[in-house]
Design goal:
heterodimer, A: alpha+beta, Transferase(Phosphotransferase), domain 1, B: mainly alpha, Rna Polymerase Sigma Factor, Chain: A, 8 helices, elongated
Chain lengths: 1260, 204
């Protein structure tokens, strides 16, 4: 259509202006006149008017569609300009660089990405310094410090990625919420503690300000931007790289400390940060800066350096005296006058809030007295009198006090300097590496315990691959597998895996991915044996024929392919018969239109006799005769597509599940539907028969699993947990457990006797890449000990669901077990209880093989409640096992009884002591036996002649000798009585003697190399270096420790403490690498097996426990190929992997004989009527009060507990013993849930059968 | 996204009537794809605006489309009885609410929690939902019209429209940049907007 107007028509531009009203009035008038005559222009104008209305909508639409980043100059439009991250928007800009909100491509995690402005980081040393700074900042792991995940150089820019915190700046936060002083102080306290944490690790922030502190929605502060931090580990002459780069003075002016303002960067240390904290505190309390900060820079600097801050009380009257003093102290111009550390500041704030005397005012004795008096709230009159009297005292005391305080300060300063000097002298890079290693392991462990298992596991494996022998990483991995027992993993395919099936003989596993590649794997090692590339497009399910020779797979076009397992050849192809009743494009369109994640995976089933195959096709189930390859029958009754099919074990029934929410049971012979089961609210995704055929389970997208009785279709039970769409179910071969996989990557195990979910394995919850969901298909091995899961992320995992446990409780003793010893061959354990009976146990079966019982008769009146008598721990050496030969020795009153362990016959009785014999120990060569008794005497006996060859007085006269130990070379003997240890050598001179300064010594042990003697006392565990005579405490082992033992290789020390935990310490660092739950009873008498892989603990209440320390090594070894493979894909990790060590380690492990796998003795599922563990699901939030109230409200009677008095409980070590309401004579124990502080896991409990009590007996 | 030239798919720029007509043919797979491409994002967006997470929204959309498809093929939809958008809304609403109900049972979702909100128990108000739907529908229709119109005009005119009308650049600058007279810019804007207006009712 020609658009040219006639000459006298106005131009379109003019008309447009007219319509919009932007044209000048005279031309508007002329246009109007023209319009009267020109229909075409009139039309134009009408159209234009309508167009303008539309234009608004169009514009609005475009604004919406535009990416949300504002167009800032200098912003790189390339979304992935930092590799591995997708930039979403810019959140801030500073002198150093720009901060973006970004998404990490691999993990889809939202991070804050700080990208430094392009700059000259030219030289190698510069780069290394930067990296070191980042590493140090990354090593900070504190809830209130934003963690750095990643850093590097990408396309010429340096960047680092941190947690993305959704929150407000500190100042805005306080103002917005109008927080009262106390809450502001609390926030400040947390911030100070975080800063202190960083200082302790040698990192100074140097740029603290409220804009660097974000407070999140939970009210937790987060410190950002340690990127400007200065490290104290670097040489004092090396300035922070970033300072020289930007050239500007760091720090925003008002927060700058005087020493910074004066321009002497070398004076910057942790107290600089304290000053800044003071400014922030000042601002938080008063809303202002301490000095004027506007105006000329020179003036501001002068103010900072010289001006006194306005007293906070003048600005805001509610700030009382003490608080003001704290603030002013922090703002002192002279560093020495400030708090030494942010921690001291935090502590003083705490004291202020508690109403205690504040450190800032410490040097006035008068003040302390006054404050203390006020706390006790004495009546006024008395106060006055006391004050007057105290004044005299106070004055004289105060002078003393200040002197002492002053000296203390000097000494403290000196030691700080000495410490600093020493730190610098030590080799920094090695320390750093070790520290980083530990921190990464801690990080990995926290991630695992918090539930992010995939990430945590990966981090731990990284560390392990770099240092294969390291005990720390090994134990961290063992702990991980204790949480989720994955035996092996493999990256089966880059495409989603749709199905997994075990061969009937249980030796092989087959997986199918959507591209039609079938893979066969060896179990349980997860090694690929063969790949069959079918040409099947879009495979959905897989099944093994009962004879294991054939594999069937079905694709979305309903064609079934039968493949020979051995050769992989496609033996037959079964295509569903065409016909109007069967296949409509509608239904085929349906199955391809479904998201891949939801396509059901059970669409094939072989009959148990192998003659028939059932397959799903559109709305029908087709039965195929496998002999002829022809369809036998078509079962049509579903009103929607069929999602799954299963044969009953007797071959007489078929169950089919459909999109129409129903399950139909068919009779195979008549091919007619027998029953329609119709309770589900949504598509039924999967059906499975129990191994005995009596039950049928149907899983649905409505989040439930329903159990039906096969015979008549009655609905028996409905299992529901989280409402998540369930994708696959399978019965365990023993029929007691049901495993269900959902579309979020979790596998839940249901106990069919109780109907409860006993475990949730986060099987495939990896970092999710949208839009794939980690839908899980699963299969039980025919032996029932492993479960295979495959997900749409392409990973195959094998899980240990056997009953094997790493801890075995050996029941049978009738009283507290006093001591337990391993026989030298490591195959037998000997134990003795308080009533004198001695038992021998076979370690491979866990059975008691002999009871050498000269048991004392049971006392006439049994105590009502068995409790943990710590005095029994003194008898932990009342059983000795000869390292050679088969001699056993134990005390019987004043005498020592020697037995032959093989025949069980008594060989001799050794007499000589004048009081009860308490401890016995054989020398390493077995020739001598040393005994200690309550008479304070030590005797040495010759084991062949059975004569006493030496008598010696114990370390303390008239005090029982409680513990003895021979050095590993047999040349020395150490003895303990009371709190003294004496060591004699073979020449009979005593070599050395120490006295423990705090509490009784309970046990001693020589290290396997003989250089150290470790002792357990009431204050913890201490190591005595015999050569240098130095004592080192094991930090973290504080508290009464009852027993300890060295592992045979000398790398680990085990200790049992009053918390009922057994801890393992790495030597020589003294770091705690593992904590084992000994159970609710006190444990002592720790011994390692000769190969170091088992630990035995005897204890109160007939508890004798064996820990298989290497139980999870199978898992570690099984997962090792997968992570090694992953390492191959990451070049920077690969070069750090220590190859020779790894190969050596792997070989050693693989060759060691398998340790016995102990099945759990007690029936795993005993239905508990009394208490519902789910009631007490939230251990982390429980307080003692609430828990006890909850128990009482149920009618139970708490008897004995180990719960902290206030605050949240420490789940692993909390427990309650109670008598249940039903009058059951047994006493139950409620335990904290093992290693998991996860709030959603319910508390477990176990029953303790103690001596029968009369119902209703009172607690002790 | 609006920057690139879309590959001319003969099926993208079709009117609703045409679409519905073609959908009746069971052998036509491509039309189904077009249908979902056109309407799925709208349902997802509506679902998201009610507070569902990304995954749930996509699930709901998928189920709604399937349900529509099934019902349509069974002949349940009569164009004379009501507009497509109302009918589709009814189905979408059912599935969105359905998904809401499921969410109520779920306690802690161990999946990707990045974009989940805690709107568990909050059901979107019915008329609010309808409003949201209408808005989304209108926007989607507008988008399709734009796409269609883009194929009908020469690239230069369309670019002129984009720069002038949408981005708001002054006409002279646009004319300079694209080497056309400034009057031509106005003409382009006028014609394109008019064409969009013509197309809109057909796309509804």
């Amino acid at each position: 259509m020609a658009d040219s107007h006639e000459q006298h028509c106005p131009t379109e531009e003019q008309l447009d202006a007219y319509v919009k009203g932007t044209c000048p009035p005279d031309s508007a008038a002329s246009i109007r006149a023209h319009l009267a005559d020109c229909p075409r222009c009139r039309q134009w104008v009408d159209d234009a008017r309508a167009n303008e209305v539309l234009l608004e909508s169009v514009r609005a639409l475009l604004d919406k569609d535009r990416p949300s980043r504002p167009a800032t100059p200098g912003l790189n439009p390339d979304l992935q300009f930092i590799e591995g991250y997708e930039v979403l928007e810019e959140i801030g800009r500073g002198g150093m660089g720009v901060v973006y909100k970004a998404r990490q491509v691999g993990t889809r995690r939202t991070v804050a990405l700080k990208v430094l402005l392009e700059g000259p980081l030219a030289s190698d040393s510069d780069r290394r310094r930067f990296e070191r700074e980042i590493e140090l900042a990354a090593s900070l792991s504190h809830p209130n410090i934003v963690a750095i995940h990643d850093s590097g150089l990408s396309r010429g820019r340096y960047y680092f990625a941190m947690d993305y915190i959704e929150g407000q700046r500190l100042d805005r936060y306080s103002k917005a919420r109008d927080l009262p002083v106390e809450q502001r102080l609390r926030l400040m306290q947390k911030i100070c503690l975080a800063v202190n944490y960083a200082h302790q690790r040698g990192v100074i922030h140097r740029d603290l300000k409220p804009s660097n502190i974000l407070v999140d929605t939970q009210g937790e502060p987060h410190l950002l931007d340690f990127g400007l931090a200065k490290t104290t580990h670097a040489s004092p002459h090396a300035e922070s790289l970033l300072l020289s780069v930007s050239g500007e003075v760091l720090g925003t002016l008002p927060y700058m400390a005087p020493e910074q303002a004066l321009g002497s960067p070398r004076d910057v240390d942790s107290r600089t940060d304290v000053y800044t904290l003071g400014v922030i505190l000042y601002e938080a309390l008063t809303g202002r800066y301490p000095y004027p900060v506007v105006g000329q820079m020179a003036d501001v600097l002068k103010n900072i350096a010289q001006a006194k801050p306005a007293r906070p009380s003048t600005i805001y009257r509610a700030i009382r005296n003490d608080l003001e003093t704290i603030v002013l102290k922090t703002l002192s111009k002279d560093k020495a006058d400030r708090y030494d550390s942010a921690g001291a500041l935090a502590a003083d704030i705490g004291r202020y809030m508690a109403g205690e005397a504040v450190e800032a005012k410490r040097d006035s004795g008068w003040y302390v007295l006054r404050k203390t008096l006020r706390r006790y709230k004495l009546p006024v009159g008395i106060v006055a009198a006391v004050l007057v009297a105290a004044l005299v005292v106070a004055v004289s005391m105060s002078s003393l006090y200040t002197r002492a305080e002053h000296q203390r300060q000097i000494a403290h300063a000196a030691s700080t300097q000495a410490v600093a000097a020493r730190q610098q002298a030590e080799s920094t890079s090695r320390d750093l590496a070790g520290e980083l290693h530990t921190r990464r392991i801690e990080q990995g462990r926290s991630l695992v315990l918090a539930g992010d298992i995939a990430q945590g596991e990966y981090i731990l494996w990284r560390e392990f691959l770099q240092q294969p022998g390291d005990l720390q990483s090994l134990w961290a991995l063992r702990e991980t597998y204790a949480t989720q027992p994955c035996l092996a993993k493999a990256l089966a395919s880059t495409r989603p895996l749709c199905s997994v099936a075990f061969a009937p003989d249980g030796t092989k596993l087959a997986t199918a991915d959507v591209a039609g590649a079938l893979k066969l794997w060896d179990v349980p090692a997860c090694k690929l044996t063969s790949t069959i590339l079918t040409q099947a497009p879009d495979v959905t399910s897989l099944a093994f024929a009962p004879d294991g020779q054939t594999l069937a797979c079905i694709s979305s076009d309903q064609t079934v392919r039968l493949l020979d397992t051995a050769t992989g050849r496609c033996a037959a192809k079964l295509s569903p018969p065409p016909g109007p009743a069967v296949l409509t494009t509608q239904d085929s369109g349906l199955s391809t239109a479904l998201p891949a994640s939801c396509r059901p995976a059970n669409r094939l089933a072989f009959s148990p006799n192998g003659n028939t195959l059932a397959s799903c096709a559109a709305r029908d189930v087709i039965l195929w005769d496998l002999a002829t390859g022809q369809p036998l029958a078509t079962l049509s009754a579903h009103k929607g597509p069929v999602s799954g099919v299963a044969f009953s074990p007797d071959g007489r029934t078929i169950a089919s599940a459909g999109f129409d929410h129903t399950v139909i049971l068919w009779d195979v012979e008549t091919r007619q539907p027998r029953a329609t089961l119709d309770t589900h609210l949504d598509t039924v995704s999967c059906v499975a028969f129990s191994p005995d055929g009596r039950l049928l389970a149907s899983a649905s997208w409505d989040g439930t699993i329903v159990l039906w009785q096969t015979s008549d279709g009655t609905c028996l039970a409905s299992l529901e947990d989280s409402g998540c769409w369930i994708h696959s179910v399978a019965f365990a071969p023993d029929g007691r457990t049901l495993a269900a996989g959902d579309i979020h990557g979790n596998v839940k195990l249901w106990d069919l006797s109780t109907g409860r979910c006993t475990a949730t394995i986060p099987a495939h919850v990896e970092g999710l890449a949208e839009p794939l969901k980690p839908v899980v298909t699963l299969a039980y091995s025919p032996h029932g000990d492993i479960l295979a899961t495959a997900s749409t992320l392409g990973i195959l995992k094998i899980w240990d669901v056997s009953a094997a446990r790493p801890m075995l409780a050996l029941p049978g003793h009738a009283g507290s077990v006093l001591a337990a010893r391993f026989a030298p061959d490591g195959k037998t354990l000997v134990s003795r209880d308080e009533r004198g009976s001695v038992r021998l146990w076979d370690l491979s079966t866990g059975q008691c093989t002999a009871a050498i019982a000269n048991a004392l008769p049971a006392p006439a009146t049994a105590p009502a409640v068995d409790w943990d008598n710590p005095d029994l721990a003194d008898a932990q050496q009342s059983l000795a096992c000869s390292p050679v030969g088969k001699l056993l020795a134990w005390p019987d009153g004043h005498e020592i009884v020697l037995h032959d362990a093989v025949t069980g016959r008594q060989l001799a009785r050794l007499t000589g002591h004048t009081d009860r014999v308490l401890c016995l120990v054989f020398s390493p060569d077995g020739h001598r036996l040393a005994s200690g008794a309550a008479d304070g005497q030590i005797r040495l006996w010759n084991t062949s002649s059975l004569q006493c060859v030496k008598t010696h007085a114990g370390p303390q006269p008239a005090t029982s000798v409680s513990s003895l130990a021979f050095s590993p070379d047999g040349s020395r003997l150490a003895a303990v009585s009371g709190n003294t240890i004496e060591v004699w050598d073979s020449a009979d001179d005593w070599k050395a003697c120490i006295q423990s300064r705090d509490g009784r010594i309970r046990t001693i042990a020589f290290s396997p190399d003989g250089h150290t003697l470790a002792y357990a006392s009431d204050s913890g565990v201490t190591r005595w270096d015999l050569a240098s005579n130095r004592l080192t405490d094991i930090e973290g082992a504080a508290g009464t420790t009852y027993s300890l033992a060295f592992s045979p290789d000398g790398r680990t020390l085990a200790s049992a403490d009053h918390n009922r935990t057994i801890r393992l310490w790495q030597l020589p660092s003294g770091r705690c690498i593992a904590t084992l739950q000994a159970g609710p009873r006190l444990a002592w008498s720790l011994t390692f097996s000769p190969d170091g892989r088992m630990l035995a603990a005897a204890g109160a209440g007939d508890s004798l426990r064996l820990f298989n320390l290497a139980h999870y090594d199978r898992h570690v070894l099984g997962n090792y190929p997968f992570y090694l493979e992953l390492a191959h894909r990451s070049p920077d990790l690969l070069q750090k992997v220590n190859r020779e060590e790894l190969t050596r380690w792997a070989k050693t492990w693989a060759s060691e004989t398998e340790l016995p796998l102990w099945a759990s003795r007690a029936a795993a599922s005993q239905p508990d009527p009394a208490i519902d563990p789910r009631l007490i699901a939230d251990w982390g939030q429980l307080t003692r009060h609430r828990l006890l109230s909850a128990l009482r409200s149920l009618g139970h009677k708490p008897l004995q507990t180990r719960l902290p008095v206030d605050g949240a409980m420490d789940p692993p070590t909390a427990w309650v013993m109670f008598q249940p309401a039903q009058g059951d004579t047994r006493i139950h124990t409620l335990l904290g849930s093992g290693n998991s502080p996860d709030r959603t896991r319910a508390a477990q409990y176990q029953q303790q059968r103690l001596r029968p009590t009369r119902p209703g007996t009172a607690a002790r | 996204m609006p920057q690139e030239q879309p590959t001319p798919d003969p099926l993208t720029a079709v009117t609703t009537t045409f679409l519905l007509e073609r959908l009746k043919n069971p052998a036509d797979h491509a039309i189904w794809k077009t249908f979902t491409e056109r309407y799925r994002p709208m349902i997802v967006r509506t679902a998201r605006r009610t507070g569902l997470g990304q995954e749930d929204a996509q699930d709901a959309a998928q189920m709604a489309l399937l349900a529509f498809f099934t019902a349509y093929r069974e002949g349940k939809y009569n164009p004379e009885k009501g507009r497509l958008r109302h009918w589709l809304f009814g189905i979408a609403r059912h599935w969105i609410l359905n998904t809401f109900d499921k969410r109520k049972h779920r306690q802690i979702d161990v999946g990707n929690t990045a974009d989940q909100t805690d709107f568990f128990s909050r059901q979107p108000a019915d008329d609010q939902l309808e409003q949201v739907w209408e808005q989304e529908w209108r926007e989607a229709t507008l988008r399709h019209c734009l796409q269609q119109v883009r194929t009908e005009f020469d690239p230069r005119s369309f670019r002129a429209f984009e720069l002038f009308a949408q981005e708001g650049l002054p006409a002279r600058k646009v004319a300079e940049q694209l080497d056309m007279t400034s009057n031509a810019v106005f003409i382009a804007k006028h014609r394109i907007l008019k064409r969009i207006r013509e197309l809109l009712p057909e796309m509804e």
